[in-house]
Amino acid sequence: TYNPDLEKFIQCYNIIDTVSKSTDKATPNYEQVILKQINTKLQAITFSRDRRAVSHCKAKIWDTHFSGRNIWILKPTGFNRGRGVTVFDSLEKLRSLIKEYSEGVVESDVPAPPTLEGGKEKKEEPTAENAVNPHSSISNLTSLPTIVKSKTFGIQKYVEKPMLIRSRKFDIRVWVLVTQEMKVYFFKEGYIRTSSSAYTIDSEAIDKKNVHLTNNAVQKFCDNYGEFEDGNQMSFNQFQEYINETFPEKGIDVKKDLVGQMKELAHLSMQSVRKKLNVEDRHFCYELFGYDFIIDEEFKVWLIEVNTNPCLEESSALLKAILPRMIDDTMKLTIDQIFPRKRKREFADNGKYGDGKVYNCLLYTSDAADERYSVDLGGRLIIQQKT
Description:
The protein is 28% helix and 20% strand. It is of the alpha+beta class. Helix 1 packs antiparallel against helix 2.
């Protein structure tokens, strides 16, 4: 069936493909020449259906997203832990993936989670009965589905020139909390997730998830998992030490320069969906989101995705320290506000709730939450307009 969004993506893909193939690779400044031609042609394509946003929704391929290849990444919606995420470099592969995922496909390259039987681990054989709707509840968490089935997808341009840690790809996970008062908090302790294998975008490595996906659910099956970092994870402080050692001339401050960009992207993403966060106007509900970011070789931060069901597995000593604090602060900012403890809590808010503007953050002055949460999102707090 015709899908206007898919058709526009195919337009973009064909532009990149045609320009790349028609330009001699011996051309001086080959990548820059191609990118200029590609971006000129892409300006003619409008992606937004909102006329007010047309001037702000012109397509552009950034130089760190292009190294002479036409590589993209497809993600079935509603799944997590890397399930169904696939890197592709041809429209034939894309059409095949969409057809397979629409019908339901067994993931053969990532082993199924083990189940306990007689005290021993046993890998469950995938069957057609394992296929589930990702939005339905899962009653048995020890037997997650091994078949991916979805009719909606996200397609992103692959960052072909990412920053690497000792030749390996990585991304960054942080948590963002939306409280029952529609206040948004950014937990300032995140962590880096690394790959077990050297990064490459050679054709023979396109299908290797252990190269391209850093999810613990994928990496833990690699032979050298944990060889470089405990649980293939690093703290922000460890990441800072690596940058100081490897890029001393850059003078990059992780928490100021990189986390600062993450806060701004979190702020913009929440602003973009603020009218959709609680359309039913439900009371006393909150949600914790897992934000994933990647840094390119020019130290620019890109938002990869926002997860509605972030993994809270304590898969390393680092997460055993971070996760309990994050969950504790989540409870303090949500449940404890509805069922307060006996001791007095003081709050300060310099804005009037509900007019849809951007505010300075609510201050949490009596407990430790303000020590672990960044006070705001880039100096601002998002409050959804009440209707």
